[in-house]
Design goal:
The chain has about 230 residues and is of the alpha+beta class. The protein folds into 2 domains: about 70 residues, ANL, C-terminal domain (GMP Synthetase, Chain A, domain 3, 2-Layer Sandwich); about 120 residues, Alpha-isopropylmalate synthase LeuA, regulatory domain (Double Stranded RNA Binding Domain, 2-Layer Sandwich). About 25% of the residues lie in helices and about 35% in strands. It is built from 5 helices and 9 strands, in the order αββαββββαβββαα. The strands form 3 sheets. The chain has a 3-stranded mixed sheet with strand order 1-2-3. The protein has a 3-stranded antiparallel sheet with strand order 4-5-6. Strands 7-8-9 form a 3-stranded antiparallel sheet. Strand 8 and strand 9 form a beta hairpin. Helix 3 crosses helix 4. The longest helix has 17 residues. It is elongated, with a radius of gyration of 22 Å. The chain starts with 14 loop residues before the first helix and ends in a 10-residue tail after the last helix. The relative contact order is 0.11.
Length: about 230
């Protein structure tokens, strides 16, 4: 007698799931997966280091996708770009975007965490403020800068100068002003976001808007040396 219950059909992985898996492969910096209407892989685009042979990376792609997701990929669907400069590997190819903001009350403090995704990577930055003296705009902006640093894997010379809300007609806009040090000169970065119901989210989006305008310059600069070499 046949069972009245049928086995559930396995859910096919999303493009984001596959991209996160590909980001685990050695020397792969960024990956973009395109699915067709049936959620089958149509195209895979890879940006990797020139330090490895393309055939090795393609074999890793085929093996890892099959082992982890049971997805078989024709190598002809995989395109690849190799970057010879190691510094370029730190630069996200797509503009980072905010995936979520969490505000936690921790007794005498409030913690704001900002989750950002870029180049198939996810990073969470955080900052804290006192409950008795809340500065939500500034705290959220600092958490966003912290998340970008974690996403890039390096410190960026950015100073938060001001965060304010301005009313323009019937709308309110949050403005963030940053100062960055680029090649021994200071540059002012300004970002804006329409004010919403959550001040922390509005400030985070305005901060990311400011950083996105100069993300290449901020990541291509060499970290500043803090101590003299012996």
């Amino acid at each position: 007698m046949e069972s009245a219950f049928s086995s559930p059909t396995p859910t096919k992985p999303s493009a984001a799931d596959l991209e996160l898996t590909l980001a685990q492969i050695r020397d792969v910096f960024a990956a973009c997966v395109v699915l067709d209407q049936n959620r089958d892989v149509s195209e895979i685009h890879i940006v990797a280091s020139a330090g490895r042979k393309p055939k090795q990376i393609i074999r890793d792609v085929e093996t890892l996708l099959f082992v982890k997701h049971r997805v078989k990929v024709d190598y002809r669907k995989i395109s690849m770009v190799l970057l010879p400069d190691e510094k370029l590997l730190k630069i996200p190819l797509a503009r980072p975007e905010i995936r979520g903001i969490v505000e936690d009350n921790l007794g005498s403090e409030k913690r704001i965490r900002v989750e950002i995704r870029g180049a198939s990577k996810v990073a969470i930055g955080e900052a804290r403020e006192g409950i008795d003296n809340p500065m939500t705009f500034q705290t959220s902006a600092k958490a966003t800068i912290n998340a970008i640093e974690k996403l890039l894997g390096q410190h960026i010379d950015v100073r938060l100068d001001n965060v304010t809300a301005l009313r323009l007609g019937v709308r309110e806009v949050v403005l963030v002003v940053l100062t960055s040090l680029l090649e021994d000169r200071e540059e002012t970065l300004v970002g804006a976001s329409l004010a919403g119901t959550r001040p922390a989210e509005s400030a985070a989006r305005a901060t990311l808007d400011a950083l996105n305008r100069r993300i290449y310059n901020l990541t291509s600069q060499a970290p500043r040396q803090t101590e003299q070499d012996d």
